[in-house]
């Protein structure tokens, strides 16, 4: 499955679960990203590429550093906290 197909699947799943809590949804075919804005201004960004890499970033608020990020872009690096650090 390519990056764009993964985004369509993610969008479909998230809409089926959180449709009443999503205010805005934007899919960029150019950058392979999906952005969702929720009712309390929380934001979720999802990015896939065609190398089986991903990143998920969730902003709880607009305050500095009030987010969490998961990715596997450096999964092949020898670090103890991979793939989520």
The number of distinct structural domains comes to: 1
Mind summarizing the main beta sheet? 5 strands, antiparallel
Give a count of the beta strands, DSSP E runs of length 2 or more.
5
Mean pLDDT: 91
- Assembly state of the chains shown: single chain
By helix and strand content, what is the structural category?
A: alpha+beta
Regions with pLDDT < 50 over 5+ consecutive residues?
none
Major sheet strand order: 1-2-3-4-5
In whole angstroms, the N-to-C terminal distance is 25 Å
Instruction: Give Rg in angstroms.
Output: 14 Å
DSSP helix fraction: 10-25%
Globally, the shape reads globular
Total count of helical runs of at least 4 residues: 1
Architecture overview:
The chain is of the alpha+beta class and 85 residues long. It has one domain. It is 19% helix and 35% strand. It has one helix at residues 3-18; strands at residues 22-28, 33-38, 43-48, 54-59, 67-71. The chain has a five-stranded antiparallel β-sheet with strand order 1-2-3-4-5, covered by helices on one side.
Give the helix/strand layout:
Blueprint: H1 3-18, E1 22-28, E2 33-38, E3 43-48, E4 54-59, E5 67-71
Antiparallel strand pairs: 1-2, 2-3, 3-4, 4-5
List keywords for this structure.
85 residues; five-stranded antiparallel β-sheet; 5 strands
């Amino acid at each position: 499955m390519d990056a764009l197909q993964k985004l369509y699947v993610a969008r479909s799943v998230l809409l089926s679960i959180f449709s009443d809590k999503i205010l805005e949804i934007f899919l960029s075919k150019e950058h392979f990203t999906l952005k969702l804005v929720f009712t309390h201004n929380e934001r979720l960004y999802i990015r896939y590429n065609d190398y089986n890499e991903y990143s998920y970033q969730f902003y709880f608020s607009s305050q500095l550093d009030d987010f969490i990020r998961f990715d596997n872009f450096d999964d092949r690096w020898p670090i103890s906290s991979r793939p989520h650090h």
